[in-house]
Amino acid sequence: MWVFRVLTQGPSCVDVTQRERRSPSRDGRSMPPTRSSKCLVRLGAGQTVLSWLPARFNAVERRTPTETAGTRQACLKINCISTSDKPSQLGLTRARAKCEAEDSGSLTRTFAVPPKRHDTSRECAYALDAPRPGRRGEEMAASAKTLTELFRPLSPSTKIPIPKSSFSARTPEQKKTTETNKALARSNRDTRICTDRIEKSRAEGMEHAKLEELLVEETWSEALAGELQKPYAKNLCRFVEREMRGSVPIYPPPHLIFDALHRTPFHQVKAVIIGQDPYHGPGQAMGLAFSVPEGIKVPSSLVNILKELRQDVGCSLPSHGNLERWAVQGVLLLNAVLTVRRHQANSHAKKGWELFTDAIIQTISQKKTGVVFLLWGNSAQAKSRLIDESKHHILRAAHPSGLSANRGFFGCRHFSQTNQILEKLNLSPIDWQL
């Protein structure tokens, strides 16, 4: 057992005496202590108390403050269960703990001790800088502090601010990674909203949710306001909803139909890669043109895209074909048709999807400037009629499929050209590495 006695002779000084007691012997006599040490911990006004605890321990502390004439005292007893029988391996570490005051006036804390150790064979003192409580520029008298207030968590106005230097010291690559992770989290939230709406519809006795309810990204909903209410779009919605009820599965799953728009909000679009229709094999389609989930075999067209990427900008070949990281950086991976039947390529062509995706391209062309369009193959290049080339940049090449990649796709260097254009526009380039 480790016993701590804390004597506070003022609001900013804590004198800690540590003593290790052995368990009583079989005849009932108490064994003499084997180790004893003292340390002095100095606290700034408003600072929570730092306690010294044996390493590798979890301890529960109970403290009952008592008031005496002119001196505030508190006795602190901690029962610890050791994971080692060797006292020489025991060290002390400093742990900051949050306290919660109970109505009875007692305080309870649970410590999670970090692995760092300190030498306990000598006295030590620590000066802690902390903001003064109260209004700015005003100091609270030390004599006004009570022991209970010392252990009380800091209010929001007195919390120590994180220095800005810790953020400014981050490298551009670290900042880029942080932004990408935030964008992934945001897009995952939109996907969860779609899933929740589908489950709610099923709970209400409906086999599926309405298609227009699955477009939840706010910036695209505003940019395409009224598009899904047009006659062609209503016919398209009815067709897709019938297909959802059919015996043949459709891809991608309903909550991923609009995932290209969820991953790349309208205001973040920097580049557009146009595909044809989703992959029609089980587990392949994920709502992003050319992309497949991790763990799924990479299709030949995407293999050729990654080969050109390595040749162009030096990216290493990834072990997967998930292009989400491109999408959240501003690359809209848009198929001309957003759904397909299993094992039936182009089965949902000419049902209205082409008009809807054309409206997306036209909206980008009209409401944005400086977007780079990567048009691979004849079908994608036919969309150039929807793009104002005086405001945007178009890069043309052959389709990356195995049949045509050697006839103009390999060597097109579209990835490096895209970044060069973005940098000239003072926009952050795309990190193409997956």
TrEMBL record:
Its EC number is 3.2.2.27. It is found in: Mitochondrion; Nucleus. Residues 17-29 have a biased composition (Basic and acidic residues). Its main location: mitochondrion. Keywords: DNA damage, DNA repair, Hydrolase, Mitochondrion, Nucleus. Residues 15-37, 161-187 are annotated as: Disordered. The keyword Isomerase does not apply. The active site is at 277 (proton acceptor). It catalyses: Hydrolyzes single-stranded DNA or mismatched double-stranded DNA and polynucleotides, releasing free uracil. InterPro entries: UDG_fam1, Ura-DNA_Glyclase_AS, Uracil-DNA_glycosylase-like, Uracil-DNA_glycosylase-like_sf. Belongs to the uracil-DNA glycosylase (UDG) superfamily. UNG family. This is Uracil-DNA glycosylase. It comes from Musa troglodytarum (fe'i banana).
